[in-house]
Amino acid sequence: MNIRPLADRIVIKMVEAEETTKSGIILAGTAKEKPQVAEVLAVGPGGVVDGKEIKMELKVGDKVLMSKYAGTEIKLDGQEYTILRQSDVLAVVE
Questions:
Q1: Looking at residue 26, what DSSP letter applies?
Q2: Which helix (H) or strand (E) holds 38?
Q3: What sign results for the dihedral spanned by CA atoms 37, 67, 79, 17?
Q4: For strand 9-14 and strand 37-43, is the pairing parallel, antiparallel, or unpaired?
Q5: Which residues, 6 or more positions from 69, have their beta carbon under 8 angstroms from its beta carbon?
C-alpha cells in the first residue's frame, strides 16, 4: 500500500462481514450489513488541526469500530480502503 495519511487521518480496511449468522443461517449478499469493524493500516502524524493539537491515539494493526458512513472510500490496486479522521472512530475493539 502506498497511502500516507496526513494530519489526523487514518487509512483502514474493512473486516469482511459474516457469511452466516450464529444459528447457521447463510446470508445472501443483499442481506449483509455494511461492516463497521475495520483494521487500521496507516496513521497520520497528528499535529495542529483547525487550531487544536491532535495526538494520534490509534496505531497500525488496531481493530476499530467506526461510524457507519464515515470517511472516503478509495480503490487502490484492486483493494478497497477508507480514509477517515481519527475522530470518526467510535472505539477500539480488543
A1: B
A2: strand 37-43
A3: positive
A4: antiparallel
A5: none
Q: What share of the chain is helix, strand, coil (3-state, %, to 5)?
A: 5, 45, 50
Are the beta carbons of 42 and 10 closer than 8 angstroms? Answer: yes
Residue type at 65 in one-letter notation:
L
For 67-94, write each residue's pLDDT tens digit. Answer: 888 999 999 999 999 999 999 999 999 8
Q: How would you classify the pairing of strands 52-54 and 9-14?
A: unpaired
Q: What is the pLDDT of residues 13-34, one digit of tens each?
A: 998 766 666 677 766 555 455 6
pLDDT digits (tens, 9 = 90+) for 32-67: 556 689 999 999 999 998 899 999 999 999 999 998
